[in-house]
Amino acid sequence: MTGLGRQIRKVAVLGAGTMGSRIAAHVANAGVPVVLLDIVPPGTAADAGIAEKNKFVLTAMEGLKKSKPAAFYTPEAARLIQTGNFEDDLALIKDCDWIIEVVAENLEIKKALLAKVEEHRRPGSILTSNTSGIPIASIAATLSDEVRPHFLGTHFFNPPRYMRLLEIIATTETDVADVAAISHFCDTRLGKTVVRSNDTPNFIANRIGTFSMGNAIRLMMEQGLTIEEVDTLTGAALGWPKTGTFRLGDLVGVDVLAHVATNFSAKAASIEDERQDVGLASFIGEMLGKKWLGDKAGQGFYKKQGKDEQGRDIRLVLDWKTLEYGPSVRPKFQAIEMAKNVESTPKRIAQLLHGDASKDKAAAFYWPLLTELFTYAANRVPPVANSIADSIVEIDAAMKTGFNWELGPFEMFDAAGVAATTEKMRAAGLPVSANVERLLAARGVDPKWYVDDPATASGRLYFDPASGEYKAVPVAEGVTSFGVIKKAHGVVKKNPGASVVDLGDGIAGIELHSKMNALGGDIVSLITQTLKPGSTTVNDFEAFVISGDSANFSVGANLMQLLLGVQEEEWDEVELMVKGFQNMTQAIKFCPRPVVVAPYGMCLGGGVEISIHAAARQAHAELYMGLVETGVGLIPGGGGCKELTIRSIEAGQSIRPDGRAEGVEIFEALKKSFETVAMAKVSTSAAEARGLGYLQKTDAVTMNRDRLLTDAKAKARALVDAGYSAPVMRGDIAAPGENALATLKLAVWTMREGGFISEHDAKVANWAAWILCGGKVTPGTLVSEQYLLDLEREAFLSLCGEKKTQERIAFTLKTGKPLRN
């Protein structure tokens, strides 16, 4: 069943606590109306007003609007949420296709609410519980015969907007069409990675995560390590979040971690092969007693103590032996320092795991941490009884999207080397999972949980211990990546920074794959040579998509390359560099074939300029997009100001039906563009990027990152089929001119006099105003796109020669932060 036949047009969320309210916010982000209900506060008079009865849910709504990170893509999404309470408003759920219960983790409370829900829900509507600890079958047993086929578990992870994992837990009675409908909706509309979990304690991600975190704490106590040492060891070196174990605990909440661990410990005794020594550590119990609950309480494993001169938090760290706080000193391990030179996470894991544990403190920690994780995970898939998932694929996907691990435990096992690791485990007298033995017997000399297979949609096969065979890793239709396509078709051409890939159906993809996709000469050259009129590649394809598989679309121009040129005073080379960048963006805009850019993650500086010159954009919903050049003392030099000038004029003209805009109307649009550039505004979503002018109304948004490439390809194909005609360079742009320039410069002067910006900030802002207004010309003077590009290049080169700009660039390269000088 695909789930396409069931439409989810309206959703009800029952429970407006932290999780429930944020689920409602994210459904609203998807443009779907939501009913959000909660209890009437105890003791409220029967004749109380709506505000008093709805106090809990209204407080939750206020919290959503102020939450950081933001729960809504834009504040306007909140209008899609209708609020109420369980006593007066349950009848509202009759219009909802999906009802999500998110009340307290108490079976009796859930039973009482669901009994009322049955009185009001429409027959056939889908009912789910977001429980993280109560067996779904136990809840289902309390429901009527009509409801049970439409009931299942949907376990979201907090915060729902940002955490991609959704665990779906069906019962033996759940209608497969309902499972398919919810899976499809959450995949395509909410952007979730949907993983099917068995109805076992803590489901998948929290089960593996609880074991891993508990094991790290146990090893810390056994080996006498510090909290900071464990955070360093369990962070980015393993491809895990850089927060490590304890910093993550403070972010999530020490009480939340304790609840998950305690909840599981109560059930662990009855589970075969479940360790009993990774439960709640005694010092954490003492922390709970002192209300040291993490960031929300101001202290937990770490404690904030003001900020340093650069505005960074100063933290003290807890000594778990004495429960006293002391200065935070980042520990150094020789093994970690050496591993920093290994960019590949799989190779880094192998290096760290197979170090000499007798001589290296890091290796002594990693060996039990990872080998016990490998064994634990392998013992939780069939044919083992009470498996948490049907295959290794679900476990790896859950850990990658629920805990933000770069690799799942089975992928990490492959990286470490199954044969070499198992051999060492046997030599040390450690237990080896029966499922690992099955893999070794089936695969022989080269045992791997995953192997490449270009013939499959996912490009991979996984080993299934239950059958002893390899099976295709399943993927939903429309989910793909450059990596998968390259396995099947290879590349058309490439250099170190980018590749051209045949996506099929006459569409080529240009994949960016430099470090952080910083835009250096290799990327600029490949895009320009590929898209310019008359090139062989242009003639071979009907359209192009520019995107990538990495975490971020592009962090902008290669600042190191620029700074070296500036410091050596190679001004001709720097100008050629800027002109080459401009040539690239113009090749994108005037390519005879349509170019669709699919930005995602961070899309900054030059990444924005690549995007805004395309025929269309297919953006991922989580898009951090901004022209940030003023932060390093520069202005956009690749056509960014030029395009915003054109868009501002067009926006002003569109205000009047006759297209004859007054100067004030154009100026208002221009002022908005000026503020966007001068203040280096960055969106926190694609919806916000549209409001800032980086995306246009006709640009589409993809909720699921895994579908972005397919959607962009479809958009490119649609432009071809609609008879795309490339634009021609304009020479009739009516420059806003000297009046607008004077007004903008007055605003800059006022900000400088008020002490809101520095002298150098003012200099940079005035250059931005100069370009956006077309220089000091008579208002309405017709100028060309090339004229505006020349102004950009002049401003960019002038600012490169400023000492304060060079200081800003150097500081940002060193710290990753802007310098206000």
TrEMBL record:
Main enzyme class: oxidoreductase
Top-level taxon of the source organism: Bacteria
Location of the 3-hydroxyacyl-CoA dehydrogenase NAD binding domain: 10-199
Positions of the 3-hydroxyacyl-CoA dehydrogenase C-terminal domain: 203-303
Keywords: NAD, Oxidoreductase
One GO BP: fatty acid metabolic process
GO molecular function annotation: (3S)-3-hydroxyacyl-CoA dehydrogenase (NAD+) activity; NAD+ binding
Record EC number: 1.1.1.35
Domain Enoyl-CoA hydratase/isomerase, first and last residues per copy: 513-641
UniProt-listed InterPro entries: 3-OHacyl-CoA_DH_NAD-bd, 3HC_DH_C, 6-PGluconate_DH-like_C_sf, ClpP/crotonase-like_dom_sf, ECH_dom, NAD(P)-bd_dom_sf
Protein name according to UniProt: 3-hydroxyacyl-CoA dehydrogenase
Protein source organism: Granulicella aggregans
